[in-house]
Amino acid sequence: MWARLTIGIIVLVIKVRSGEVAEWRQQREKAVDALFHQQEAAWGVEVLQQAASQGNLDAQSDLTLAHLLGIGVTQDIAGAAASSSSLVSVGGARAHTTQALLLSHNLTGSSLTQQERQNQAVSHYLLAAINKDPLAQIMVGGHYWSGGDCEAALQYLRRAATTVADTVSDEAKSRTPPRYIWDEDDTTLMTYQIPSLDEFQFLEYSAMTGDHEAALRAAIILYKGVPDVGYDPVRAAEYLRQAAEANITTAMVMLAAMHLHNTVTPDRDDTLDLLQTALAFGDKTAHTYLGLLYLKGYGDVPKNLGKAKKHLQQGIKMGSVEAFYLLGKLYEDPDSSGSVEEAMMMWEVSAMFGHVPSAFKVAENYWQKMTKTAFTVVKDSTSALAENWCHKALPLYRMTALSGSWQYLQEAAYDDYRRGLYSSALLKYLLLSDMGYTSAHVNAGRLLDSGVTGVYSSVEAAQSEALKVWQRAADAGVAAGQLRLGDMYYYGQGVPLDVIAAAQHYSDAAKMGSAQGMFNMANMKEWGQGVSQNITNARMLYEAALEASPDAYVPVGLALFRMNLLLAVNSTLGLDIYATNWLPRKRSNLFSSLDALLPAWDVALMVVLTIVIVVMVTTGRYRR
Question: What DSSP line would sit under 441-477, residue for residue?
Fold first, then answer.
């Protein structure tokens, strides 16, 4: 009897402990996720601090990254380095990630060579990835990808993508473009303007005074969750209701879509009526959401795959990305006459337009094909196919993985920059750059170039880090990256001076449509620096720079005036001024400081030559 009672007590204790562990895991997941959301970061830190004070190693480990990046707490790089260094020996995946980040960016104060630091960083990331840290899994996947090991890269990126896939909405919701600390780097400024808080408050005031168009715009801003305003679907739905009652069809469709995606609880049972009314008024975007309504059934409306298919096909004709995805879901439904192959065709299209759930489904299809080939007897005949599927799946898994909550660190970093917290902004951008966010390469580079962060004690260390992120930007097809690499090689900043390499980078930037790249390349061709001198090509590039950017009018005008002046002097005096090396190979600090006091060398040269020509012409007149 006592034995049975003892066993019963033990079982009860195990159940209680298991329940507590499960509850803590859920709470920890919420707290860690909150760290990546500005408005929730402080709460996440508070939860983790409470657990850490009770000796929880996972919470202590998570807090090391929060302190390193300045998430929800004041940044403490030295403290993060010390605590993560002690925690890696006793467990805690996130502590390994923190140590890896510190090593990758030369922030440990060690005397290791760059290669030794990188090797240790990879080892820490591997340990963290094995212990299910998705940040580390993305890093390791990227490491193997850049090293040409597709299969290993796929293993880790797939794990991170699988973690993210369950949290991503099926909705094809347009994302707010990342912000750049230099406006010149933002290629979206002409197509998308993020409203300021004052502008949004004016919209709200206009909406409250009866402006229904303002109500619609306010709803869109609240639903997108733009910076400074935040994400508030409940308030968005209220403004949409106001606009919908004024017969604005965009509001009708948007409100119905929010109902169907369970974004908000409907305030009345009129989802079908909203869509049918919008369609009756000629808004064909309603087709996609009528398709969604009939695809799964909603309220009193039963599931009807026939009607769903007709509406979704109409949505596809309108170019709806979500319609492609939903039609794929329809083909996947056992009650439909479709096939998995037809579903994949739809998802491949929507994935091309950045629809994350579609990307994950297509990647999983490639993964399954690869898995089947692993059990094929004649492997030589399938290895090429498997490699092809691997290379197709990799970018899709990466797209999914980068859609995790950590993407919101981009906005947190920009906010740090605006508030003058340059060190916190830089560390966030460096982490994001390591993960593969293109805008982070550029923003990290600008901060490192500025020298305002105080993170690195020497110019050389900052330039070494800047070289890495600018190279990543260039590899990602960003013209600013090619331009900065060109400048670094031209002036010998962090690399040996190499005008040939500089010319190549400027040329690559010019091919990307960069007016600055065209101008710099024209200047090098004009003077024969790093390339063969060709005055005709130089003139064409100057003119191309002007066509590419109206802002280039003054520098291009001066450059062409100088060129024409030099050619006139050469012709008049029989000289070859271009044969003289007027251009300094590298600007010294003295030259740079004089720039603020004296005009540029080429402007001064033009003035001198103009005076010479005027004197010659005047002298000639007196002689006559």
Answer: HHHHHHHHHHT-S---SSHHHHHHHHHHHHHHHHHTT
Token output for 554 = 């003054």
**How far is 1 from 3, CA to CA, in rounded Å?**
5
Q: Is 25 exposed, middle or buried (0-12, 13-18, 19+ CB in 10 A)?
A: exposed
Give the tokens for residue 276: 């049918």
Q: What is the pLDDT of residues 283-328, one digit of tens each?
A: 999 999 999 999 999 989 999 999 999 999 999 999 999 999 999 9
CA distances from 128 to 153, 378, 424 (A): 15, 36, 23
Q: Which domains does the chain have, with CATH numbers?
A: 21-131 (1.25.40.10), 194-355 (1.25.40.10), 521-624 (no CATH)
| C-beta of residue 222 within 8 angstroms of C-beta of residue 232 | yes
What values do phi and psi take at 566, rounded to 5? -65, -40
d(CA 208, CA 217): 13
The H or E element that residue 576 is part of is none
Amino acid at 159: R
Sequential DSSP letters for 287-343: HHHHHHHHHH-BTTBPP-HHHHHHHHHHHHHTT-HHHHHHHHHHHHSTTSS--HHHH
Q: For the segment 336-390, what is each residue's pLDDT rounded down to a tens digit?
A: 888 999 999 999 999 999 999 999 999 999 999 988 876 664 555 567 888 899 9
Asked if the model's pLDDT at residue 36 lies above 60, the reply is yes
Using CA of residue 587, residue 592, residue 594, residue 600, what is the dihedral sign?
A: positive
What are the Cα distances from residue 223, in Å, to 138, 264, 438, 479, 560? Answer: 29, 11, 25, 32, 50
Cβ neighbours around 551 below 10 Å, total = 13
**CA dihedral for 170, 173, 174, 179, sign (positive or negative):** negative
Q: Are 569 and 611 in contact (CB under 8 A)?
A: no
- pTM to 2 decimal places: 0.86
Closest CA to 76 of 84, 68, 64: 68
